[in-house]
Task: inverse folding
């Protein structure tokens, strides 16, 4: 192999390597964090689970379904609110940006016991 | 001697097992608007009067650990009001007349039983409004059949009363249509008109995690704001609470079935258990002395007793 060919091959390899490294760095920088999926079932008059522990900064999607009638899901501390109808899964996404213990509740009156239909989200560091 | 003393409203004994004076509050924490009296004083105003507010009677509730006299408390309150030396001009029931049930027929039966009991009141004029226990599961169908409209107005001796429905929508909304109705009604009122709003849920965010709020209550308050003399009386939270949004005073009433804990004071909202050493503690009714000329409302809280 003559000198010119060696230089060309070396240059090409260096360029390709640099390109791939760049791609890797770009990809890491722009990667969409994987959402944690949590299934929640609402039924008269509780949520299951009624205590959910999350990590601050970790994106989460709640997949909420109703086992009986229309309910509401309201996690006011994070502005998360949706109605939950039977026969379909309702998804809400958020990323907790603060730590602490936060109440969520049914905010669609569903009968005797509605007032006690609540749960807790605990966000840790 | 005050008007209330003259009327003999407060009787520490002898109300046939009814009520005792608990506390009084004059005119919305004393913060309600005193302005505008000059102009209004020149207009024709009617005499002072008083009315009685009863709330959250939850007829049909059963829970001996919470209220072993669930079938007697409302009757005692009726008897107590009937025992007043001077009868009020009218009575208002600010919602949750009955305790909710999924069974439509039982719901209707409870409403009929409630009506029968309160028909024993001597006062001929009684204004009802719904609570979520009465109206949320069927959007007010059974309630309207038994009691009539969910929202309406009436006038009494210079005061304009507005009954707002924030319960027949199970999502705790007043709704755009009713807010437009309210705005149209307010347009007919002068800005210094004496206005009392009667509703079930608080119109402000008292404690939303416990459903102690109206989702679009801020829009209602915005509509009321241009009026200088507005006071709100409501129920729902089963305890006395006094709050100001700007110049508008909001006063919640006690229940006649079970008290609830102070907002946020316990992890889960649940009725306060019955205390055998202090029966009926936390239950009560109130009288409201209205002085339209001064846009003044003097509240007297009255406890239920078992005597």
Result:
């Amino acid at each position: 192999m003559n000198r010119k060919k060696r230089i060309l091959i070396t240059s090409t390899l260096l360029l390709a390597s640099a390109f791939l490294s760049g791609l890797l760095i770009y990809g890491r920088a722009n990667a969409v964090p994987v959402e944690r999926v949590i299934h929640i079932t609402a039924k008269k008059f509780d949520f299951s689970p009624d205590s959910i522990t999350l990590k601050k900064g970790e994106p989460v999607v709640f997949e909420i379904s109703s086992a009986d009638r229309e309910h509401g899901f309201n996690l006011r501390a994070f502005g998360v609110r949706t109605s939950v109808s039977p026969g379909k899964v309702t998804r809400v996404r958020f990323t907790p940006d603060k730590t602490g213990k936060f109440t969520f509740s049914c905010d669609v009156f569903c009968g005797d016991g509605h007032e006690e239909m609540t749960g807790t989200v605990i966000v840790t560091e | 001697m005050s008007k209330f003393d003259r009327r003999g409203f407060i009787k520490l004994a002898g109300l046939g097992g009814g009520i005792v004076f608990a506390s009084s509050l004059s005119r919305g924490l004393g913060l309600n608007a005193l302005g505008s009296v000059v102009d209004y004083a020149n207009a024709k105003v009617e005499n002072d009067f008083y009315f009685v507010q009863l709330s959250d009677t939850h007829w049909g509730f059963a829970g001996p650990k919470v209220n072993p006299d669930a079938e007697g408390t409302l009757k005692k309150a009726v008897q107590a009001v009937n025992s007043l030396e001077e009868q009020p001009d009218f009575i208002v029931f600010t919602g949750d007349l009955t305790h909710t049930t999924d069974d439509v027929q039982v719901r209707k039966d409870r409403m009929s039983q409630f009506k029968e009991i309160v028909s024993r009141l001597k006062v001929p004029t009684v204004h009802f409004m719904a609570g979520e226990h009465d109206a949320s599961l069927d959007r007010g169908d059974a309630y309207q059949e038994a009691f009539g409209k969910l929202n309406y107005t009436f006038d009494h001796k210079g005061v304009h009363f507005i009954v707002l429905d924030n319960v027949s929508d199970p999502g705790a909304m007043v709704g755009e249509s009713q807010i437009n109705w309210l705005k149209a009604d307010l347009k007919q009122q002068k800005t210094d008109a004496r206005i009392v709003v009667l509703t079930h849920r608080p119109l402000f965010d008292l404690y939303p995690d416990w459903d102690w709020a109206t989702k679009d209550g801020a829009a209602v308050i915005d509509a009321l704001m241009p009026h200088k003399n507005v006071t709100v009386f409501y129920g729902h939270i089963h305890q006395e609470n006094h709050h100001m949004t700007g110049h508008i005073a909001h006063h919640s009433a006690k229940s006649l079935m079970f008290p609830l804990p102070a907002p946020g004071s316990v992890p889960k909202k649940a009725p306060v258990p019955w205390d055998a050493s202090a029966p009926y503690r936390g239950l009560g009714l109130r009288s409201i002395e209205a002085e339209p000329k001064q846009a003044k409302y003097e509240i007297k809280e009255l406890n239920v007793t078992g005597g």
The interface with chain B takes residues 70, 72, 74, 76, 83, 103, 105, 107-112, 114-116, 118 of chain A (CB under 8 Å).
